[in-house]
Amino acid sequence: MGEVQTVEGQPTLVVRSEQGLPLKLEELLSQMKPFGFSVRQDIVPAGARTSCTALREHRMTTIREGRWFARFGLRLNAGFPQPGDARPTVRVIPPGVISLRLEMCQDCGAVCVRDVSMESYAGGRSARIYNRETGQTRLAPAVMARNVVIGWYSGKRPAGREYT
Ligand SMILES: [Zn+2]
Fold this sequence. Notes:
Layout: E1 3-7, E2 10-14, H1 25-32, E3 37-40, H2 50-53, E4 60-70, E5 74-77, E6 90-93, E7 96-105, E8 111-115, E9 118-120, E10 127-130, E11 137-140, E12 143-145, E13 148-153
Antiparallel strand pairs: 1-2, 3-4, 4-7, 5-6, 7-8, 8-13, 9-12, 10-11
């Protein structure tokens, strides 16, 4: 399932996202642009290798880091965290601005989208921060980067063949 789109000059197989991300990579990039990019590095994929197509193993390079406004929030299927779980865990990311890292495969050009927003987490220990100048101590809430894959834009396939 999916459709071929041209993304920055590359024919790209686009898989429909149920997760609220734009269907096209170029649309996601244009929605991120107003926030500015902290990382912006374009690469030219060398062409899909067997590892990409057969093993689905990709060599990723970070091409963008920036922010995106998740208008409707995101619902992610987080799989089965515990053995024997009856149903998959659904992870909900509320609407709002989230931080994204986009990684592109150096070979096939597939793009992996990660939510790398900072969030506080249950069970995390807050950090004690001591200010030398004022002598004051305060507690910083425990935060961590989420680092959750929230989307995938497939790359160009070899010899123009699309495996769907
Ligand atoms: Zn690849």
